Amino acid sequence: PPTYPQHPIYPPATQNTSIAMFHIPQDATNSLYVDGVSIDAHSVKSADLASYPDIFRPYPGFQCIRLIKKTTMSGREYLLCFVDFENVLQSTIALNTLQGYRFDKH
């Protein structure tokens, strides 16, 4: 089983990788996919996207945000957004805490 540094949010090393509020699935990953990140080629501003790290930075283990711009066959542009953490416990805590958070202000 993975081991985590001693920190108040981590379970003691003698426990499994679930904590009271969060169950960590066996197939969990340290990267989160963020749904609902919209892009409008005519109105998106880099300042809008620059605030995304501020949402995740307070969570222990936050490493980076990856935005990947894609285009459908019909020409519509969209973003894939991934947020990386140091380990699965940290990503699970962020996932459960931010579930339902609206990134789009509209």
Q: Give the overall silhouette.
A: globular
**Helix-strand sequence:** EHHEEH
Strand content range: 15-25%
Describe the sheet with the most strands.
3 strands, antiparallel
Widest sheet: strand ordering: 1-3-2
Instruction: Tell how many strands the DSSP assignment holds.
Output: 3
For the residues shown, what is the average pLDDT? 75
Radius of gyration of CA atoms, rounded to a whole number: 16 Å
- What is the tally of helical segments? 3
Describe it.
There is one protein chain. The protein is an alpha+beta fold and 106 residues long. The chain contains three helices and three strands. It is globular, with a radius of gyration of 16 Å.
Topology readout:
Layout: E1 31-34, H1 46-50, H2 52-56, E2 62-71, E3 77-85, H3 88-98
Antiparallel strand pairs: 1-3, 2-3
Considering the chains and any ligands shown, give keywords for the structure:
20% helix, alpha+beta, 3-stranded antiparallel sheet, 3 helices, globular, 106 residues
